[in-house]
């Protein structure tokens, strides 16, 4: 599928699962903190339970149904409970804090991320819109070596709402000096990135990282390199 690209001057990217390999980096962060805190469980077993729970909490977080603290605690506590392990709130909070600190120490990118950023940056002005925690998103960009590609970063923590809320997209456009008519959003989450963008009249490309079934009319790619055929 092709799209009219002649009027596009600004591209807004999601970060986690779109450019920054959250799954790989998260696994490495857990490996680090499990050693530190002597959590005696196989990493693969933990992650198989944790990952769907984490996605569920992020959905609740986007919908303003849980706080940041509840997300950080709940996803760990629920996972350990399913694995018949029990830790104090103090221990859970310590694990959660160290996990956040360890995340930006591992900075693998999604395959093709730097190549597509180099390609697009020669033709468009690039930006980030992220629901991730403000204390780590900037560190991820800098440590992974892609910070210089982006003119602005709009973070849900700073705006006070999360994608797909209209306000975060409006804020990002205003910060970038961009309009819906000359911009496009690229992200992995159909609900947050695609529907959120379309709700304000912003075109979107879904990087279908999770291999989900989404409506056929949505422009989507299975690999980042395919964006070159669209833009």
How would you characterize the overall build of this protein?
- The chain has 231 residues and is an alpha/beta fold.
- It has 9 helices and 6 strands, in the order E-H-H-H-H-H-E-H-E-H-H-E-H-E-E.
- The chain has helices spanning 22-37, 43-62, 68-82, 89-102, 113-121, 134-143, 156-159, 166-176, 190-199, and strands at 10-13, 125-130, 150-155, 183-187, 203-207, 220-221.
- Strand 4, helix 9 and strand 5 (203-207) form a beta-alpha-beta unit.
- Helix 1 crosses helix 4, helix 2 packs antiparallel against helix 3 (68-82) and helix 3 crosses helix 4.
- It comes from Aquimarina intermedia.
- This is Putative hydrolase of the HAD superfamily.
- One of its GO terms (molecular function) is 5'-nucleotidase activity.
Number of individual domains? 2
What percent strand? 5-15%
What oligomeric state do these chains adopt? single chain
Strand order of the largest sheet: 3-2-1-4-5-6
Q: Could you give me the name of the CATH homologous superfamily of the largest domain?
A: HAD superfamily/HAD-like
Which spans have pLDDT < 50 for at least 5 consecutive residues?
A: none
Topology, number of strands: 6
Helix share bin = 40-55%
Number of helical elements = 9
Question: How far apart are the first and last residues' alpha carbons, in Å?
Answer: 11 Å
Outline of this structure?
By secondary structure, the chain is α/β, with parallel strands linked by helices. It folds into 2 domains: 10-21 and 109-229, HAD superfamily/HAD-like (Rossmann fold), CATH 3.40.50.1000; 23-105, Putative phosphatase, domain 2 (DNA polymerase, domain 1). The protein has helices spanning 22-37, 43-62, 68-82, 89-102, 113-121, 134-143, 156-159, 166-176, 190-199; strands at residues 10-13, 125-130, 150-155, 183-187, 203-207, 220-221.
